[in-house]
Amino acid sequence: MSLTTILGRTVDDAQTPLLLAEILDLLLAEPSPVRFTAYDGSSTGRADAEITVSLNTPRAAAYLATAPGSLGLARAYVTGELQVTGVHPGNPYALLVAMDQLKWRRPDVRTTMRIARSLGMKRLVPPPPPPQETLPDWRRALEGLRHSKIRDAEAIHHHYDVSNTFYEMLLGPSMTYTCAVYPNEQATLEEAQYNKYDLIARKLDLKPGMRLLDVGCGWGGMVRHAAEHYGVKALGVTLSAEQAEWAQQEIKRQGLEDLAEVRFGDYRDVIEGDFDAVSSIGLTEHIGVRNYPSYFEFLREKLRPGGRLLNHSIARPDNIHRARVKGGFIDRYIFPDGELTGAGSVIVALQNAGLEMRHEENLREHYARTCAAWAENLMANWDAAVAEVGEATAKIWGMYLAGCSNGFGKRQIELHQILAVRPDERGHSQYPLRHTFGV
């Protein structure tokens, strides 16, 4: 260990407080491709790096020290205590790709103690989180059991009732907040969203006069598509009051009142039954893995014998049981109480509920492209978006969309469509010998 002479005394370097850039260097196994600067005057990383991360205040250091990983980074970034140059806040995709290249190492006990002493006790006390952050899991538990109707309603309100005007900027004319299906490399987002709804309609074999139930219907995109293009009488249900209001106005504007309806309420409160088809597009992620049996049993009971279910949901790339991730960026800022499992587990659950799986496909590359398109919309409308929801919320969405695009692209998460049918009591499915929906 080297020695340094200070004020005429010889001092062990291990007792000298570390600067923030020095702490980062101790935690990295390889040099950072991102330039890092700190309020204490220290810096590290390539001098010619395109991206610079600046830790501007002691509070920013406290956020990172007390919530390592995505949560601490998000807190510092959202509050502006940490700033990033070289990327647009509406789409910091390049930052996340660069951060993926960082190779970390676990410090030994002596190094850990030295880092703690250098930071000081004040940096090891968590500062108050930004107001955009939802309550921690234990506080949410005081409001009701996870996935109870009351708690589900609050979780949906947190994410979906941001602002319909903001979502119009983000999602575009389709107002569709689920994975699009791109028919070709040149297709626009709107073309891909139309194609997604039409693919689902074909998989469900919709025909004039049929009845469709769309659970977790969002702004009513599937409901309106089925009514307008297939002559189907469609009912959609959403827990977001703002979504329901927007959807009903759009249904009226399109003159579809005789066929289409969107209700504000819990899908579990739908009393109608004997539907020809049920679509669940982006709802399964919100209901909890333990609730899959009752969820698919409920949907099965809503179908007539021979009726079809299309389940469209995000999934893990494996079926290894994992505890729900608590306290990360996604849980505290985006999807409170959200939970994922593998597509195989979803198929097992629907089969155990008496449904027969007939077709399955993974569309994860389409979701990477969809999230990138939403991020482009956010950048294009950045000033208006900030004026509508505030810079902090807009930055949260930029980080979220960039992270999702990156995650789908490298198969951290997937998107699966599963087509199932309710056989009759003799096992007859009314399904043709070959699929008729094409691609």
Please give a structural write-up.
Helix content is about 40%, strand content about 15%. The strands form three sheets. Strands 9-8-7-10-11-13-12 form a seven-stranded mixed β-sheet, with helices on both faces. Strands 4-3-5-6 form a four-stranded mixed β-sheet. A two-stranded antiparallel ribbon has the order 1-2. It is built from 18 helices and 13 strands. The chain has two domains: about 5-125, 2-Layer Sandwich (Nonspecific Lipid-transfer Protein, Chain A); about 150-420, Rossmann fold (3-Layer(aba) Sandwich). It has about 450 residues and is an alpha/beta fold.
The number of distinct structural domains comes to 2
Strand order of the largest sheet: 9-8-7-10-11-13-12
Judged by helices, strands and strand pairing, the structural class is: alpha/beta
Number of distinct beta strands? 13
**Low-confidence runs:** 1-12, 155-160
What is the H level of CATH, i.e. the homologous superfamily of the largest domain? Vaccinia Virus protein VP39
Average pLDDT: 90
The rounded distance between the terminal residues' Cα atoms is 65 Å
What's the number of helices?
18
The CATH topology of the largest domain corresponds to: Rossmann fold
Strand content: 15-25%
Shape: elongated
Which CATH architecture of the largest domain is right? Answer: 3-Layer(aba) Sandwich
Tell me about the largest β-sheet: 7 strands, mixed
Range of helix content:
40-55%
- Rg over CA atoms, rounded to whole Å, is 25 Å
Question: What is the CATH C-level name of the largest domain?
Answer: Alpha Beta
Protein name: Class I SAM-dependent methyltransferase
Keywords: Lipid metabolism, Methyltransferase, S-adenosyl-L-methionine, Transferase
GO molecular function: methyltransferase activity
GO biological process, one term: methylation
